Amino acid sequence: MTRLRDLPACEWQQRLSQDGLALRVGPYVYRIRSNVPVVREGIGAMYGDFPVAQVDDYIDFDIALSTRGLRQRLRDEAEFICDGVTPFERIPLGQAYAFLEWGMNWCVALHTNEYLKLHAAVVARDNRAVVMPGVPGAGKSTLCAALALREWRVLSDEHAMIPPGSRATVPVYRPVSLKNESIAKIRAFAPEAVFGPQSKETHKGVVAHLKADGAPDSHDTAPLPVGALVFPSYQPGSPQRLAPRRRTESFMLAAYHSFNYSLLGEVGFDAMRTLVAGANCYDLQYHDLDWAVDAMHQLADGGMRE
Amino acid sequence: MSYLLRDALIEPSGVAGMDNAQLACLVAQARNSRLLASLAARLAEAGVLSQLPGAAQRHFDGATLVHEKQRRDLAYDADLVRKALATRGIPLLLLKGGAYIAAELPVSHGRLITDIDILVPKSDLPAAEAALNTQGWASPPISAYDASYYRRWSHEIPALHNARRDTTLDVHHNILPPTAGPTIDAGLLLRDRREVSPGIYTLSYRDMVIHSATHLFQEGEFHHGLRDVWDLDRMLRDFPARDPSFWDGLVERAALLQLETPLYHGLNYAQQVFKTPVPAEVMAEAQSPLRKLRKPLMDFLYLRAFRPDHPETRLPLTDTALYLLYVRSHYLRMPLHLLLPHLARKAWMRRMDQRDGTTQ
Amino acid sequence: MKWRLQSTGRIYDAGEGQVVYFHTASGDTHLLGEFAAHLLELFGEGPRDLAQLLDEVAVTGDGTTPPEDTVRSVVDELVGLDILGRTE
Fold first, then answer.
1. How far apart are CA A235 and CA A284, in angstroms?
2. Could you read off the pLDDT of A179-188 as tens digits, one per residue?
3. Does residue A88 sit in helix, strand or coil?
4. Is pLDDT larger for residue B117 or for residue B299?
5. In this predicted model, what pLDDT tens digit does every residue of B242-253 receive, in sequence order?
């Protein structure tokens, strides 16, 4: 298997600027084109360990983040293109890399339904996965990043992909997206952490991505059994706790945070039931990252369903 | 690779021999044309879908799931609407995609819908709106200008949204706005309606075709252009078998409704794009000398609009063609003195919106 | 007045004093209390009126019959969710 870093820089950069650079991301292949320097820089920093797709692989998402035409060039703008169409407004170049990452999430969120997709970070220890659903701001990405820096494997910071009828999750690793104060928090937590380009003034504020595929099996594609569902909430000033929560409420909350639970109808209900019934469910209320990481270690040591 | 989608819809067996690059291109074209689930249905019926590589199949299956979800929701929502209207003695007449699905016609196989469109007698509009309001279908607040625009110049009331169901209902009292030129007697359409399940109606077969053609050529929704021509093809292949006299009265019916021109264009482009069999005498009957004269220009415009929105398939000048069609359709809908202030006002409102956006 | 189930439904009961209910017709999912779930089970056997329900919850319950108001309010809630409807 060829990884991006196995290719000479001039070769992959040429692909990126011309016919497209095809990378494997979990079960999918993205072909990415870009003429924006910060995107090239970000891909070099974040995607070095990603497998390069074969020439005749099926391209699931043909995307570009490029500056097109004189007008965009003069205004320092770029646009996201998926299969030849531009679903969104133009964006300032300073946001280009964050927008590429966001657009890649959008592809999976919108165009795939073979899995029950939860909006969740997914991490694993000893080949057992923990699914952490949560709204933006609940602290799931920050915790996910911290765990990656303490030898957990990150399966995704955005999508838990559950094959209906199983209690497993399919890895779809991509760099972990951090916002605003989380960036400094993770830098302080692990000074050796590798970040991509920092994008300024997106609608989410400042965004930067963490390279979180340090685990040797980060790009394996085999599904992992889900041992626990953990619902994180970042709450400064409140007592920290990891406590069991009811499965029925976990079901409702996970369904609420799903991209396609409702779309799948009865299949979605069955898939969620299988998942929730097969995993232990917890609330994780935290404000100190070291404490939260310790709590997750304890969970891995005996709080997960076999 | 230019026109994979059309070829695949006409002859699905050819898809079995495609390589991954062609398949990915086909999926993209179909997705951008809102035809991915329709193509999936077509491939499944031809026994081709299961032969495709899993990586491609899952995209078709994903679109099929969206279609199935819409079908389930439509069944439920249409029933809510039916019950609400029934309290005022108003029958539920579905239009377009909702009608195809409710009537379980082949044209509905994989058909994606966005809103539910219904036709209500104009005199029943206030009662219908009131009845729907009580069931949670409400119009979101719109500006006084937009409200008066709808009331005076449109053939529908502002869309009603049901917050609990998250579905949108478009209530029409006619199939064309009163300003569009031909004044259609909606009573004719309502009189010929067909009951497809207890209390749920659609237009007659002929009127469905005429409406579909009218919608395609008058409404300006050209990003759905190919999808709408596909609808016409499916119906024109299906209806003659259901009603042996279908072709005989079609042009006459369009003439009665003053919709011969859109019908002619609909038949013409279905034939040109999807090789839809249309009897020569029907075509001749529909084609007036004037329309023949304008045909080269119309072909230039429409055959571009009907291509999937995809770089592999766009012909040169596609943007120009789409732009012209947009203006043309507005022009057809409204006399010029109404058109200009309306567009100007829309442009101004957009600028205001953008300015509001930047000051936040 | 009698009520009946409007459509089929699916229940996930983890023994937690509440259940997840999937309403097939609307595709909606609800979190229902144990008592509401119990009523749905009864309606699974056929349409019922208030008197019948009061009888049955007295027979199958744990002896503390919920007052008429409780039954009525739960039924109303289920009607509001379109899970139950009046027989026509």
1. 10
2. 989 999 999 9
3. coil
4. B117
5. 999 999 999 999
Which chain A residue is nearest to residue C13, measuring alpha carbons?
A248
Task: State yes or no: pLDDT of B215 exceeds 90.
Answer: no
Query: Among the residues of chain A, which ranges form H helices?
Result: 9-17, 37-46, 69-75, 96-111, 140-148, 181-189, 247-256, 261-264, 266-278, 289-300
- Find out if CATH 3.40.50 is the number for domain A116-300: yes
> Which residues does C contribute to its contact with B (CB < 8 Å)?
25-27
Domain boundaries, chain A: 4-111, 116-300
Say if the Cβ atoms of B73 and C25 lie within 8 Å. Answer: no
Render pLDDT for A3-42 as a digit per residue (tens, 0 to 9).
999 999 999 999 999 999 999 999 999 999 999 999 999 9
Q: Where are the domains of chain B?
A: 4-359
**Are C31 and A266 in contact (CB < 8 Å)?**
no
A276 in contact with chain C, both atoms CB, cutoff 8 A: yes
Q: How far apart are CA A275 and CA A280, in angstroms?
A: 10
List, in order of start, the domains of chain C with CATH numbers: 2-86 (3.90.930.60)
DSSP assignment letter at A26:
T
Q: Say yes or no for a CB contact (<8 Å) between B31 and A111.
A: yes
Measure in Å the smallest separation between the Cα of B23 and chain A Cα atoms: 8
pLDDT of residue A213 exceeding 50, the answer is yes
**Do the Cβ atoms of A248 and C27 come within 8 Å?**
no
Asked if B21 and A263 come within 8 Å (Cβ–Cβ), the reply is no
The answer to whether the beta carbons of residues A247 and C16 sit under 8 Å apart is yes
Q: Could you tell me the two tokens for B255? A: 């003439």
Burial A145-168 (b: 16+ CB within 10 A, else e): bbbbbeebbbbbbbbbbbbbebbb
As a whole number of angstroms, the distance between CA A105 and CA B44 comes to 29
Instruction: Residue B73: list chain C partners with CB under 8 A.
Output: 27
Please give the residue of chain B at the shortest CA–CA distance from C80.
B135
Tokens representing A294? 């310790």
Q: Number of Cβ pairs closer than 8 Å across B and C?
A: 8
**In chain A, residues 148-177 whose CB comes closer than 8 Å to chain B:** none
